[in-house]
Amino acid sequence: MDPLQRLLELLKPGSEAESTWIKALFTFITEHLSPVTCGPSPPAADGSDTGELSVFQLSVSVVQQIQERMCVAHSLPVSYRLLSVSELVSQQHLACVSNLSWSTNQQRAWAREAELSVPGQRALPKVNLLLIGCLREGRGGEWRLTDSSGSVRCECLSPSPLWLNRPVFLPHWNYIPQNASGQDEAGGCVELIGPPVLLCPGPEQGLAASVGAVLINALGVREAAGLLLHRVRGRRLAVWGQVGSVCPLLVVAGTTFFCFTLTDQSQSVPVLVKDSSRLCWSQCVHVGQSVCVTALRVCVLRGWRGNNILCVTERSELHTDYTPTHTDYTPTHAHTDYTPTHTDYTPTHTHTDYTPTHTDCTPTHTDYTPTHTQEHTHTDYTPTHTQEHTHTDYTPTHTQEHTPAGMDTPLLMMSHSDDDSEEAEPSVQSGVRMKQSRVISYQGTVTEVVSEGAGLYVIDGKVGLCVAYQPTVRRKLRAGDQVELHHVHFLFRPCPDFPPSMLCCCLRSSLKVTTFSRLGWAGPVLRCPGDGALPRLLLQGHRGVSEYLWACHLSSQLTHSLVPGVLKQQCVCLLSWRLMETLWGRGGQRRRDIYSEMLDEPHTCPLTQYTVDSAVPQYISISELCQSLQLDSWSSVSLRSLLPPDGQSLSSSEIDAALSWSCRTLSSYSGDSLRRRPLLLVGVLDFPSQMSELKQTLQLRDATGGVACVATETSEDDSGGQRASYNTAWIGCLVCVRQFTMVTERFLQSDFPSYQHLDQEKFITDRQTRVYLQFSLDHLHILSPSVAMVTHLRQKGEESAGDVTAEEEKTADGKRKREETGSSLSASSVTMTTSSVAGSPRPCVSMVIRVEQKEGVAWRNTGAETKEEAGLTLCFSARAAVIGPVVRWGRDPKNEPMTAREAEREGEDKVVLVFSGASARWFPVLHPGCFYRLIAVHTQDPSVLISSGISGQSGVELHTDSTLQVTSDWRFHTLTRPQLLHTCRQVLSSMVLSVSEVLDSRSEVVCFQGLVSERISVRDRTSHYGHTGEHSGVRLTLCDQSGRSLHVYLDLSHTPYPPGLLPGNTLLLSAVQRRQSRTGSVYCRFLPVSSITVISQGETSLAPPPPPAPIMHLGPWALSSEQRCIVGQVKGHVVCFLFLQLQWSCSLCGSVYTQVCDGDSDDSLFNFLMCACSSDVICQPISLTCRKHTYLRTQEVRRFSRADRDFVTTLLRPLQLTCQHLH
C-alpha cells in the first residue's frame, strides 16, 4: 500500500482540512527531512547510529508528538504550516515566536508578562509555523538545525550531546532574523525555548549499557588530581565531578578550544576541550552541573607553566546530570568539616544529589541547591568557608526588586575576594584610588542593551554588565534575556558614566542564558558604532576597565554629536580610544596570560584591580553646554549680590546702571553646581556662522550646535607671549578642548525704584545672556587635523600627535602617510576652506601679503542692489603690503612653503582689502604683522588679484592705496615663520603703545594694549541703538604694569558685540581716538574704524585689582605741571570740615531728600556731626587715593591791589583732588 494511504488510514483525519494537512506533512518530510535522516549520517554522541527511518515512520512520529502537545486533544493543528529552513531564512524577516501548545489566552498573558518585564518593549509576535530537522554540529562548536534545503544556527538553553545527529521536532522556538538585535550573521538564529522532541529511538539520557562499566569505574576529582602529577602514556581516564567553572571559547593560532573545571569538596582539575567534534560541549556544561567525562588523557598545556591538564580525546563522551553509583565516595558526608545548610531538597531523576562542600577552583565554599524552573536550573550560593583565604559574607548594595518570571529563587550573589577590604591605599595621583574587585555569581534580566558592539548591557535596570574582556560570541544578549553569571567580577563605581554597580566578565567567567528574551527587536542600537572595534582595541591595548568604559561612553556620545561627514563611523571608536590614551597615557597593563587567567589559583586577571577616579573628564555636547550655562545664568545669581556693599544707599539710576551688565566665569576644571567633573569638548574649529550673534571670533561646532570662542596662541617671536589666533590652519581641525573658561555675560534692563524692590520681577524690562568660551590654542589636542594643519606640523618638524591615523602612520612611508592623512581629513573639513586634499588639481592664482592694519568690523550700508543683501552688511577693511607678484598654480598650494617666485618684487605695493558679507568671516584670523597667501580659485587670470586704483583729475596727485574687493570664494592661508623665505622673516617694529605712552602721547589716533581692570555699562537713551540693545555703551578701564590707567569708551551700536571684554584680559585697541576732557583727563574713544582684539586671557573668574597708585606728596604734586600722574595716593590728616551734606532717601520710591546745613544752623543733628568730625578720633592720619584735576592752563593771572597800586602776577592753580577711595 502506498505509504501516504497507510498514513491516512492510521491517523483517520476527521475533516478534509486535516487530510490536506497530513498530505502536506508527508510531502514535506519526503522532500526535506527524509534525505537527511534516512540516508547515511554521522553517529550519535553515544556511538549509536540513527539508522534509516522511513518517511512513514517519521510522519507517524511527528503527528503523535504534535498531538501530545496540542492544547486541544485529538485534533491536528491545521492552522500551522511546516516550514523548511531555507524558507525560514529567506521569507521570515521579522523576529517571531512559535508555540504549539499555546491557546489564545495563554499567548496574550505571555505577551503581557514579557512587556511588563522590560517597559517600553514589545513582545515577539506569534506565528503558526512548525520546524522539523536534524540537529548537527557546526563550525566552532555551534549547533545548527539542518534539512535538505539548508541549515540555520540554533541556540539552546541546556542542550544534551544526545540530541546531535537526530531528527527533531521543535514545538517552542524563537526566530531572530538577520541584522536584528543580537544577530549579525546571515541566516538568522533559531532559539530553542523548550527541549526538542526526538523523532527516532535512542538511548535515554544517562548511563548506556555499553559504557556502564566505564562509568562505574569513573574516578573522582581527588583521585584524578593525583594522577595529573604522573603522566602515563596511553592511559585514558573517566572522571566525574561538579562543574566549577566554564571558560568561553577561544581561538588561538587557528585552534578553537575551551576549558572547564571539575571540582569536589577539596580539589579541582582542569579539562581542555579542543577536539572539533566536542566543541559543542561548551553549551552543554554549566556551573553546578554534575557530569562525567570519559576517555580523558593527561597532557601538558604549553604556556601554562608546564602544568598538566586533562584533555578530551576524539573518543571522549560527556554524560550530564551524572549520579555516581559506587559507594567509596560519599559527597555529602565524606568530610567532617561540612555542614549542609539546605536539608529540604529532595533530588529527582533529572538532578543529582551531589552537593560539594569545598572547592579550590572558586575560592569559596558553596552550598548548591538547584531549584526547578522549566528546563534550566538556578543555583543559590552562600559563602561559608575557605581553606586558604578568609572571606566574609558580601551584602550587595543593590538588591533585586523583583524576581524574574519563572524563577523561584531571589537574586544570587556570591563573594570571592582575596582581600575583603573594598578599597586599597590611594595611589600617588590625586583623587585616584586602586580598588580590588570581588568575584561573585549573579542572575538577573537584561533590561537594556547599552552597546552591543562594545559588549555593554544593564541587568535588572541598575547593574551594568561588561563582556568586552571575553571573546565576541555569536549570539549577542538581547533585552529580556535572563542570564546567570558565575565567577564574574563586581566593581563599584569604576566609571561615573555607568551604573555604580558593574559586573565584568573575564576569561574565567561564565555567562549562561537561562531564558531567551520574549521581546522583539527594538531597532538598531547606534550608540556605539563599529561592531567589535572597541573590544579589539582593548585586546591590543591592554587597558583597564575604567578607561575602557570611559572610551565606550565617549564613543556613544560622539556618534551623535560629531559633525556629519567628519569621520566614518568605524573611526569614532578609534577616535575615542586615542583620546582616552591621551588623557590616561599610552602605557597600558601587562599582556594578558590567557591560561593563567582561566586556570590559576589564586585568580588574577585585568579585572582584579581597577581605578576609581571621581574627577574623570566628562564629555558634554556644545548645545548641552550652552543650554546649561544659559539656564543657570540667572538662577545662580541674586541681584543684590551684583551691587556693591553699600547698595542700599544707591539711587534708582545707580542701581539700574550697576545691574545692567554682569559676568559669570567658570573654569572647565573647577567644580560647581553645573557639574562636579572636569568638562571635555570635542568639535571642529570653524568660522562664525551666519546665524551666530558673535561674529568677531572663531566658533567651535559639533552636530548639536556651535559656540563662539575667544582664542589666543603663542606668538612666533622670541618673547613667546600670547597673541590673538592668527593661523588659518586651525580652521577645519577636529579638536579636543580640555582647558577652557566658560563665560556668561548677563545684560539686564530694569527700572527699580529702590533697593527694596530688587525681588520684584515686574521692574525688569528685558534680560539677555551671551555665552562663549575662552581658551588658548596651545591647550587643544588635535584629533583630526585639516590639510593645512598637516602641512604646518610637517614644516615645524612635529608629528601629528593625536591623529586618528597615527597608528597606521608608524608603519607607512612618507608619501603614503600624507595620502592617508589627506584622505581621512577631507571629510572632516565640512564646509571649511580645507575641504580638498592638498595637491588635488585645482587651478588658481595667489599672492603673498603682509597685513599692516585692520579696521574694525561693523554693520554698514554698502548700497547693495540685490534683495538678499539689502540693508546693513557686515564689513571691514585691511591695509596690506604685497610681497610679490601674482603666481599661477595648477593646484591649490594652501599653506605650503613660500617659493622664490612669490617674492620676486620690484617694490612693495600697498593694497586695501575690502571684506563684506560672507568674506567678512576672515576677520578673526587676519592680524597686523602676519603673512598670508591670498588664493583665488578656479581661475588662471592674474588680473583678479590686481587691485584697482582711484582715478583723479589731471595734474592731481592722489595719496591713496589701491583697493581690492575680496570675494566669498577666496581663501587666506597663514604663512608662519618656517614657511616663509629668509628674506621675509625679519621682525617688524611694533607701533603698539602702552597705557602710559598713550597718556603722554600727543597723537590723536593711537594703537595700544592694556589690561582690563574694570568694565561698566554706559547708558545713553538719546541715541538709536543697533544690535546690542540699550546698553551699547561700554567704559573700560585699562592699565599697565606701571599702575597708570585710562578710560576707553566704546560705542557698540553699529558693530557686532565683541566678546572677551572682561577684567583680567589684555586687549589690543587699534585706531582709537585719544581725547582730553575739560578737566584735563586723558581718555580714548572708539571710532567706526576702530578694532579691538583679545591678545591674552587672564583669570577672569576673579577680577584682578588695579595696580596701586603711586604715593604723591601734596606740595610737589601741586607744583608739577606734567600730565604724567593723574591718580596717586596721599597721606595726611583732616584739619577742617568746610561742607557737610546730609541725605535721606525714601524707602518706598527711592527719592532723595537733601538738607544743607551751615554754621549758623541751630539743627542739633548738624551740631553733633560737626563736633564729632572735629574730634581727635576723626582727625587722625588717613590715606586716600585721589584723582588730580587737570586744566588746559596750569597757571592763572591774578590782580592784587595795594593802596593805590595794582599788581598783576601769574600763579599756579591750587591743587584740587577728588577722593576715589578712603583706605
TrEMBL record:
Principal subcellular localization: nucleus
Gene designation: ELP1
Basic and acidic residues: bias regions: 807-821
Pfam families hit by this protein: CTC1
GO terms classed as biological process: positive regulation of DNA replication; telomere maintenance via telomere lengthening
Cellular-component GO terms for this entry: CST complex
Span list, region Disordered: 369-432, 795-838
Annotated organism of origin: Amphiprion ocellaris
Span of the signal peptide: none
Low complexity bias (residue ranges): 822-838
Intracellular or extracellular location(s): Chromosome, Telomere; Nucleus
Example GO molecular function: telomeric DNA binding
Protein name: CST complex subunit CTC1
